[in-house]
Structure formats: structure tokens, C-alpha cells
Amino acid sequence: MPSDYVPILIYLLVATFIAAFALVLPHYLGPRRPNPAKSDTIESGKLSYGDARRRVPVQYYIVAMVFILFDIEVLFFYPWAVLFWDLKWYGLVQIAIFAFLLVESYIYIWKKGAFKWK
Amino acid sequence: MPIEIPTLNVIALAPQIVVVVTALVVMALDISLTDKRVVGYVSLLGLAAAAVVTFALLGGPAQAIQQMAVSDGYALVLNLVFIVTAALAILVALGYLDERELQHGEYYALLLFSTAGMMLMAAATDLIVVFMGLEIMSVALYILAAFNHRQVGSGEAGMKYFILGAFASAFFLYGVALLYGATGSTNLHAIGEWFSPDRGNLGDPLALVGLGLLLIGFAFKVAAVPFQWWTPDVYHGAPTSVTAFMSVGAKAAGFAALVRILMVSFDQAFTLDWQLVLAVLAVLTMTVGNIAALAQKDVKRMLAYSSVAHAGYILVGVVPATMTGVKGVLFYLMAYAFMNIGAFAVIAVLEHRDAIGTALSDYAGLSTRKPFLALAMAVFMFSLTGIPPFVGFWGKLYVFRAAVEANMSWLAVVGVINSAISAFYYLSVVVQMYMRTPTDETAAAPALRLSGPVVVTLALALVATVVLGLWPTPLVNLTALGIFG
Question: Which of A66, B230, B364, B411 could form an S-S bond across to B436 if both were Cys, CB 3.0 to 4.6 Å?
């Protein structure tokens, strides 16, 4: 029944309205007192320098990617370590499979020369 | 609070696990061997092992793993489709990559991971697992499409496929979210129960919008109108061995998950509200694909549009949402795997470096230059048109019959008319090969070399297309096992 879809239409209209509202209203109502520190780029409290449009060594791309991968994957070890005794052999086997996959990929990218800064 | 340790029935995913382990072995071999062709042969061995495991499970009781995935007849028959697709694609790649100095171990590892993703989609009984399979398959395919890094077109294909594919995944996920919001579950059976008539939830708008968004995601993956725009560029730009693989594999995987979701979860909800929409999409997909293919002067691009049209024919089998339709779809996918990869194998042979040699005029007089190659191509073209006694004919017969049985004869009529249109461009390739003399240009082109693996691919595809066309009973019996567990 097409009339059943009316709530969804209303929902879409409300969502659009709220989004527009939240963007437009502060622009006109909010006080604006800029100073150099406020207008500066924010990156976790580090002072910015130079221009963002500069050359970055392409090798850095791979290093950054590998870092993200391993950084995130370590997260899986924490819950397992906390619940080590509760999960018994099941957890150990699961994490062993996971660790194996991690080590194989590590050796793989190593041998492929991902860590070489040539 | 004690934690309940889940029991894992690993047997349910045994074929997938075999493929993934093979991919890991392939990665290990890749860093220790210099001759990467060995890696390709090892991949073939792994696929053979997966086929053995699949056959061992076939006909037995359906095994389920945590209500997440199931190895019922339906999943197992589709596993065979994916294994055949991957094996033929690897055989094409062995020769194709060699000639272009692209022989890298990553190719086979990615192809195997992609295959495992497809198999997971066919086995999944939970929308989250469907999504996982979809992503495992797609991410590998994005990289494979851009595999020919020396060629701009290949990079463009990978980039387009990646960006549009990410959009489609987002639509799919949004659909899953809405369905979860409406029904309170992502499990296919639980959603099916929620829709059961006595619960009075039929026609619930939120769930139906969710289904609509799922349909968008799948329509993209199987290249159905109006989400087919990426197809020609990606299929044309990607290395031919990859196009062969994804034109069949990604399509089969998309239909695999779509059909299971429609049959298990929606059933009546689908027939009430979305059936007509999908029927119209089927008509548009067939017509747009065929008419666009008519205008192509390039055989590879023409086959890309023909792949859109075939998605339309398969949709004709999906729309009735009956078991006859499901069997028709399974038959069609298996038939399509043989004839389409066969046709792409011929293109791979004729294509020189830098995507030259795929124009229609390059096929002029092929019958005098390479009689076997021309004969194989002619058979694949006849089969894709749906001319008996080739296997493509039976595929079309079964999906159209499902539409007729479901009182949708008009859909079958449109399908037949479209097949007649498609004859024009398929047969124009045959005309070029057999009734035109080679132009000066093609005569001056470098001699065609048929590498061993390509001959094997062509022979296998040719034998399957002809034998299963003359005697379809084994394949019919196989698809009859494709039931939901």
C-alpha cells in the first residue's frame, strides 16, 4: 500500500530539515571571534608547520598502511587476554589461527620488500 | 557471568576453508618460488580439493555453523559453479599473464580469496555474513581489475569498480540496517519468520524499503539495469582473464545470495510488493544490454553488454521466486560459466598487448588463420544466443519455463524476443570469422600463439558446451540437488 510509505517520506523530510537546520542556523546565530590559534589546523595538539600540499615519499604510504593494519589487529588480542580463562581452549585455538594468519602476512609483506626504503 | 563457548561445525564451511588455505599456501609459495606458474597450478590443485570436498558433502544432510552459514544443496551446487569459474579463469590467466609479463603470485592468491568470498555468499544465512562474503569477493576483484599496472585502462577499470562498488556496498548495508530495525534480526530465517502471515507484518514499509536497498546492492553486483553503467568500462579495461572470472563469478555470487534471501526471508513479502519491480528490471536489463551490444564494434565491449543482457535472462528465473526458477538459475549460471569464459579465452588469445586486437574487424577470416579457435568461438556465440543443441539453449529454456509456470508468460516472451535481438551481434562475430577474408591489417598482425593452458580451457569449455547441450541430464540432476536446508 503506497500510503504505508508516508512515514518514511516524513522521516526523510525531517532528516533533511534537521541536517539543513544544524548547518545553517549556527552560521547566522553563533558568535564568531576568531583568533590565530582558533583558525589554525588542529592535529592532536601538535603545532602545524609548512604547507599540506608538499611531496611525501611514496614508501611512506606502504609503511602507514601496514602500521594501521597491525595496529588495529592487536586490538583483537586485548579482549581475548582479559577473558583468557573463560574462553579456555576455544579461545586459544581461535587466537592461534588469528596469530598464524598475522605472522604469515607479516613474513609475506617482509619478503615482498614492503619495509625496504629504497 | 560464565561465557558460553560456541560450538563450531567446521564441516559446514569445509569447501571455503580449503580454498582459503590454498590461498595461504599460494602466498607462501609466492615468496619462495621464482616460477610463478607453479603457483597457478597449485591453485588448481586446491580448487580440485575443494571440488572433492563439495562432492563429498553433496546429497548429505545440510550442515549449519552457528545459524550464520549452511552447506545445503543450494550452496554446494553453487560452490561447483564458483570452482569451475575459478579453475577456467586460472587456466586462461596462466597463458595470458605470461605473455604480458604480469605473472605474479598475488594474482592467484587474490583470485582464490575472491572465490572463497563468493562461496561464503552462497552459504550465508545471515545478512552480515552475506556482506562479509560480498566484501571479500569485491575487494579482491577491485585489485584484480587494476592488475595490469602498465596500462591506464586497467587502472581506470579498478578505480571505477572500486568507487561504484563501495557505493553499492553502502546501499546494501543500509538495507541490512533497515531490515534489522524492522525485524530485529539479521538472520535470514528469523526475518522469514517475522514475515510469516500470522504475524501480520506483510507489507511493512520499513522492511520493504530495506529489501529495496538490498536489491540495489545486488543489482550493482550482477550488473542489472539501472546499475549497469560501470560494466562496459570495467569489463573492457580489466585484463581479459580477470573479466572472464568476474563476469561469471561476481554475477553468480550476487544471484546466489539474492535468490536465497528472496526465497528464505521474503517469499510472500517479495511476491506481494517487489515482484513486479524486479520483473520490470529484468525486462529493462535484457533490452538495454542487447540494444547497447548491437552498437559495439569491439568484441570485448560487446561481451560486456551481453553480460548485462544475461543478468536480465537470469533475473527472469529469479522473479517467479519458485523452486523451478531456482533450478533454472543454477543451470543457467553453470552453463554461462562454460560458454562465457570460453568466449573470453578466445578474446584473450586474439588480444595483443595494450588491448589491441579485440575489434570486430580483427576477427575477419579467423577460420582460415586458426580453424580451432574460430570453431570454438562460433560454438560459444551460438550457445550464448541460445541456439540448440548447445547448453545455453537449455539454460534459457529453464529460466523462461519458470516464468511461464508462474503465470508470467509475458516475461518469457520478452526474453525470447531479446534472444532474437542478441542473435544479430553474436552471429556477426561468426560472420566475420567465416565469411570475411582477413584484412591487410589482421594479416600483418603478429601470429597468434595458443599456449597449452588456453587450449585446455577452450577444450574444456567447448566439450562442456556441446556435451551438456546434447545431454543436459547430469546438470539437470545436479541442479535438482540445489535445495535450501
Answer: B364
Structural domain includes residue B5: no
Which set of grid coordinates corresponds to residue B239?
585484463
Q: Using alpha carbons, list the distances in angstroms from residue B356 to B103, B295, B320, B350, B483.
A: 20, 19, 42, 9, 45
* Cβ–Cβ below 8 Å for A108 and B209: no
Q: Pick the more confident residue, B485 or B332.
A: B332
- The answer, for B24 touching chain A at a CB cutoff of 8 Å, is yes
Nearest partner of B119 among B184, B46, B176, judged by Cα: B46
Q: What is the C-alpha to C-alpha distance for residues B214 and B203, in angstroms, rounded to an integer?
A: 16
Grid cell, residue B359, equals 575489434
Q: What is the pLDDT of residue B384?
A: 95
Flag whether B485 is in a domain: no
| Structural domain spans, chain A | 2-111
B197 touches chain A (CB under 8 A): no
| B19 pLDDT more than 80 | yes
Work out the pLDDT band at B355, boundaries 50, 70, 90: low
- Residue % of chain B over a pLDDT of 70: 98
Distance CA B231, CA B257 (A): 20
Q: What is the mean pLDDT of chain B?
A: 90
Does pLDDT of A1 surpass 60?
no
pLDDT band at A70 (very low <50, low <70, confident <90, very high): confident
Contact between chains at B204 and A7 (C-beta distance less than 8 A): no
Top-level class of domain A2-111:
mainly alpha
Reading the block at residue B258, the C-alpha cell is 539474492
Chain A contact present for B2, CB below 8 A: yes
Structurally, chain B folds into a number of domains equal to: 1
SS3 B64: strand
Nearest CA in chain A to B104: A112
What is the pTM (predicted TM-score) of this model?
0.89
Most confident of A75-84, B79-88, B183-192, B437-446: B79-88
> Would you call B28 an interface residue with chain A, using a CB distance cutoff of 8 Å?
yes
Domain encompassing residue B182 = 10-480
Q: Cβ contacts (< 8 Å) between B203 and chain A: which residues?
A: 1, 4
Distance CA B92, CA B236 (A): 16
Q: Is the ipTM beyond the 0.85 threshold? A: no
CA separation for the pair B253, B354 (Å, rounded): 30
- Which residue of B108, B110, B206, B277 is the best one to mutate when testing the A interface, meaning the one whose CB has the most A CBs within 10 A? B206
